[in-house]
Amino acid sequence: MSSATTHATGQQHVWSVAEHLEDILDTVRPLEPIELQLLDAQGCVLVEDITVPVSLPPFDNSSMDGYAVRAADVAGASEEFPAVLTVVGDVAAGRAGLLHVGPGQAARIMTGAPLPSGAEAVVPVEWTDGGLGEGPVSGMRAHSAAPEGATGEVRVHRPAEARAHVRAKGSDVKAGDRALEAGTVLGPPQIALLAAIGRGTVRVRPRPRVVVMSTGSELVQPGEELAEGEIYDSNSFALTAAARDAGAIAYRVGAVADDAETLRSTIEDQLIRADLIVTTGGVSVGAYDVVKEALTSVGDSEDETGIGAGSGVEFRKLAMQPGKPQGFGTIGPEHTPLLALPGNPVSSYVSFELFVRPAVRTLMGLPAADIHRPSARAVLKTGKAIGSPAGRRQFLRGTYDAEAGTVTPVGGSGSHLVAALAHADALIVVPEKTTSVEPGTEVDVVLLG
Amino acid sequence: MSSATTHATGQQHVWSVAEHLEDILDTVRPLEPIELQLLDAQGCVLVEDITVPVSLPPFDNSSMDGYAVRAADVAGASEEFPAVLTVVGDVAAGRAGLLHVGPGQAARIMTGAPLPSGAEAVVPVEWTDGGLGEGPVSGMRAHSAAPEGATGEVRVHRPAEARAHVRAKGSDVKAGDRALEAGTVLGPPQIALLAAIGRGTVRVRPRPRVVVMSTGSELVQPGEELAEGEIYDSNSFALTAAARDAGAIAYRVGAVADDAETLRSTIEDQLIRADLIVTTGGVSVGAYDVVKEALTSVGDSEDETGIGAGSGVEFRKLAMQPGKPQGFGTIGPEHTPLLALPGNPVSSYVSFELFVRPAVRTLMGLPAADIHRPSARAVLKTGKAIGSPAGRRQFLRGTYDAEAGTVTPVGGSGSHLVAALAHADALIVVPEKTTSVEPGTEVDVVLLG
Fold first, then answer.
1. Do A272 and A365 belong together in one domain?
2. Which of A285, A296, A425 is the best residue to mutate to test the B interface, defined by the most B CB atoms within 10 Å of its own CB?
3. In a domain, A110, yes or no
4. For a Cys staple, B427 with which of A167, A183, A397, B395, CB 3.0–4.6 Å?
5. A238 touching chain B per CB within 8 A
6. Where is the chain membrane-spanning (chains A, B) (predicted)?
């Protein structure tokens, strides 16, 4: 683990937010690509350049419902002096074109149908009598109800130049063109293009599988009864939701009791389905901090197959509030990254946004610019100055008003204040050296969700 | 159907984009709420005001790992003259508090553990000798490795006022407080709060189930071979992805051949799992426009259980490009809304963004402000003026640069240009009365994805 050599002082060194993040991003690597069905690849990052195999459209085709004609036959046509043509049949979309349009002839043609040989242009049905021998019509009768529309005569009321209402083969993309580049994130329009050029599957980095577990013998599943001294487990719910929100497939394991052996075996069990493991709680300086106890020795062992096969988890103090105690490292034979977050609800959520989300999005192969939450500058809107501890970067909860360019603190700095968190949409960043921020000061904000 | 009475002229009336949208939003109603497990409710809209049943925290508890003490016992303590206290045991988180801290006594206490009776404050472990009889320590040894830490003597090096490092019962939220209001969208922080107050399930509007089918005998599944005159089905893939993106659970039925009876029975089959049906293709004036053929008579019939039980589907011309032909109405015994979009890939995608997305988000119960894509004003960045047909609102594809405040057109106006669509992130709106837009003009843009 790079950190172990860079920071030989280990426990004593207080890590900056940037150092801890850098260590995580230096360690986490994008997942190996796999071939996925198109709709399973939604939101994923393409790892191949996609070349167009066949031109789009693959053949000259009509952009209108109308009649395929020879330009000379309709030259000078008007409603008073229509061109009268013999209808030789229908060309529906998807029907192979055996029809030929000779001089004095027309084929009834539908949008997207191939232009028959001999024809040079399409006149929309609204420019004709639709074969009824009366005035202009507004559309065709359904073939199933009126098959005679595909025969007889049609009167054309307006001329059409060669190529009028014809979409040329290759006018969208040509065979050999680059359709999409490696690195593209596949949203609906990109999926449209891939399907249109015939790609049923595509090579992408898969969504990371993130296993979320909270630790603490005091934790009770919501909906059950609390005994004395117990509280509800909220972290495993919040972080599972946050992991999905970041793009992951998230598995909530729920609360694990404060017993190192139970925790180790739970983690070992979960490794099989994890590209990343997130724990909460048990990382501080207490006598029951089980995550620290269970994982501190990992990586020192000779274990080649269990969780000990990773490079180990290091527990650190960060110059940040909330979120001071953090663990990070890799475990198991696949060197699966593990982030051990503190247990207070606000601490764990803020830590997720700052450290886990970028890790998830790095696993997805997203470009560096897209792995973090967006940030902005905003004017602090509050009645009195807010204090912040020296030497620690503080993240306060706030509501951001994009139009006014302001941010208003919500609730206090306590890392247990989950109600305030639920009413915030931004984190207000107070730098390490700042101990007080006056109302009206411009501050950095991290924009959530 | 309100439209049938409002616009008795039916086929002849050319609908504005706003009129068509208004008809859709007047018809579509938010789905009936259901009780969902917390994590299944992510992204959904709450329909109940949530009141806090028990205060948070539910009891006074420690915010630090340290020692619970009586304030008088540590008054004046210093490293030179420490307060020496008898350790009466451990209070771990989740353990019910049978311990009592009397004069001259301390209990070792963990973050989140209930403050024992008699104790008034917590001194962090770093302010003590940790019971080792030496200098200040940086943490506790694990209880499993050193159970003696819960007994013996501890030297406290600094005083603590009453309530120091104690989180008061109810300091986050109090029983009876309003936790969240009806109408709140449940993201990770809101899920955190609901879990924290013990809610295992919550009453929300579910995600709408959207069935997507494309129509056209020319359509081939991507990955298979194209015969002459055939093209790949891209709409059913693109719109399934777009429906998910809007918040729906989307089912892709795929391409249905141009046969009215097949289409009717396919739609009838799918009704059981649909809160909304989207079709593409077959809505224009051609002789094989099967959606129009199959659904025009729906609603006129006496049918009480089949698709005819709805109020019917009306086919319209819209003053818009692309996307002129559109169908909308309700079908089946549940009066399930159906949007019949045109078949050109760009037309169907733009129609989805303008009409289906707001319908999906209305079904979800989102507030009016959140049902549409965000829009912005931007300066048109292009070499020459762009033309637009009079009387139709045009939506051109473009790339938006938020920092520069500009939008650059991508590709032409052809509704078959799916490659350009895949490289766009905005729609440039050219109003009905405008026939030419000069470079440098400020335009409205719809921001995609």
1. yes
2. A285
3. yes
4. B395
5. yes
6. none
